[in-house]
Amino acid sequence: VAHARPVTSRAAKTALPPATRRGCLRAATPAALAGCSRGTRWLGTQPEAEPRGSLVPETLAEMDSAGSEFQQNAAELRAMGKQRLSLQERKRRRRALDALGVPDFAAFLGQQGVSLPLRKEAVTMLQLNVGLLCNQACTHCHVESSPRRTEAMDERLVEHILRVLAASPEVETVDITGGAPEMTPAFWPLVRGARALGKEVIDRCNLTVLFEPGMERLPDFLAEHGCRVVASLPCYSRENVDKQRGNKVFQRSIAGLQRLNGVGYGVEGSGLKLDLVYNPGGAFLPPPQDVLREAYARELDANFGIVFNELFTITNMPIKRYADHLHKAGELQAYMQLLVDSFNVSTVDHLMCRTLVSVGHDGQMYDCDFNMALDMASRGGGGEASGAPQLPRPSGTIFDISSLDELRSDAIRTGTHCFGCTAGSGST
Q1: Is the N-terminal amide bond of 117 cis, ω within 30° of 0?
Q2: CB-side exposure of 388: number of CA atoms within 13 Å?
Q3: Exposed/middle/buried for 257, CB within 10 Å: 0-12, 13-18, 19+?
Q4: Contacts of 115 by beta carbon, 8 Å cutoff, 6+ apart
Q5: What is the separation, in whole angstroms, between the first and last Cα of the chain?
Q6: What's the DSSP call for residue 152?
Q7: Distances in Å between the alpha carbon of 224 and those of 165, 189, 212, 366?
Q8: Is residue 100 over pLDDT 50?
Q9: Which of 3, 270, 278, 391 holds its CA 20 to 30 A away from the CA of 313?
Q10: How far from the centroid of its chain's Cα atoms is residue 265's Cα?
Q11: What is the pLDDT of residue 30?
Q12: What whole-number distance in Å separates Cα of residue 232 and Cα of residue 428?
């Protein structure tokens, strides 16, 4: 979850980019929001034509369309293999920084007077990527989820994670993500088990999953277990959402929010938190959270009767699918320049990697889910104060540990993509 922080960088103080002003900060017109009916505040009123059937066929059709970026990326993957393609991506970012005369991220931090290496503090959040299957295939998705991904967490791993959680009293929150995490069988026992241990559970929901076959009881399940829903909605206009996330996604997202409001999510006094996440629709930084939240609240309430709690803004990471998009558009170097120019040293102490551990569907541990996308596994080997072994752990998976406290003081792996988390107000 992103947190608002003081903005001190020069670039972050400049006027909002034209692309942002044309997007979610302008007042939405009836034409931009056409096709969705108004709903009554949180009483469960649904759009006149509630979505029916799976979104998967629509997503696959877009992925298979001739000339699509998905087709081009698939061809590159077949020709080069995953490892070589990831190496090529890292080299592109490195070349972009070389052209700007910027060193790697760790060296850059050192120049700013930051003590190195960055180290883990007490782990308070465990993020679980339960699988990469998704009913969507978004252009900005850093883990490249889609309906064709089959990777998923198995029962043995679920059981071990719950044992580790029980032995980790400092962990307050379990953040479950994917893919669309609800489409993976591991999601359900993890929610029940984590809540039984008294942990807060976050469901990273794409909203459209609520209308997939077999998900009819999902809103009630989430409410019954008191889960916090953090939902993706990159704009409050149909055009911007569908361009970034796929055809018909906006209609289903609005209907999904209304369905969640219908069971009490986002409603004052219900105790059920519904937060929204915005990410830019282009190669620019997100605007201030408070300004954007006001616009979202006004437009969603006025046009659809939707209420929510918080709005978080995140920076698009120049990795994987989005890095490919930037490279093909000839915008990668300019985007890296923006991130470097917007560096804010006050964000470093609050980076999510300080207090978070991310576990992939195979049990591998990472310092964040961006590192997971880049196969940058945690190396292990704690500092002297941690009491952990100095040598790397045998497999680097969560099976190597019995408590997350063993990771305290571990060195954090960084890379060129980390400039995305330190730009402007910070993004986590």
Answers
A1: yes
A2: 23
A3: buried
A4: none
A5: 6
A6: B
A7: 21, 14, 20, 31
A8: yes
A9: 270
A10: 20
A11: 33
A12: 14
| Helix 82-100 and helix 320-328, axial crossing angle in degrees, nearest 10 | 60
> Is pTM beyond 0.85 here?
no
- Residue 304 amino acid letter: F
Amino acid identity of 233? L
Contacts of 247 (CB under 8 A, 6+ apart): 58, 62
CA 394 to chain centre: 29
Does residue 335 sit in helix, strand or coil? Answer: helix
Residue 13 in tokens: 């103080």
Given a cut of 90, whether residue 310 has pLDDT beyond it is yes
Angle between helices 155-166 and 187-196 (to 10 degrees): 20
203-216 pLDDT, tens per residue? 999 999 999 999 99
- Residue 403: Cβ within 10 Å count: 17
Does residue 342 have a pLDDT over 90?
yes
User: Can you tell me the distance from the alpha carbon of 232 to that of 249, in angstroms, rounded to the nearest whole number?
Assistant: 11
Structure tokens at 376: 């940058």
- Taken as a whole, the chain contains a residue count of 428
Q: Following CA atoms 238, 242, 248, 251 in sequence, which dihedral angle do they give, to the nearest 10 degrees?
A: -30
Residue type, 210: L
Closest CA to 244 of 69, 13, 18: 69
Predicted confidence (pLDDT) at residue 202 exceeds the cutoff of 90:
yes
Indicate left, alpha or beta for 271 from its phi (over 0: left) and psi (-120 to 50: alpha).
left
Cα 354 to Cα 195, 246, 314, 373, 414: the distances in Å are 24, 34, 17, 18, 12
Q: What is the pLDDT of residue 381?
A: 52
The answer to whether 136 and 208 have CB atoms below 8 angstroms apart is yes
Question: Contact 235/190 with Cβ under 8 angstroms?
Answer: no
Calculated CA dihedral for residues 127, 246, 69, 145, nearest 10 degrees: 20
Three-state SS sequence of 56-118: HHHHHHHHHCCCCHHHHHHHHHHHHCHHHHHHHHHHHHHHHHHHHCCCCHHHHHHHCCCCCCC
Q: Report which of 211, 212, 204 is spatially closest to residue 274, judged by C-alpha positions.
A: 204
> pLDDT tens-digit profile of 29-47?
333 233 332 333 333 344 4
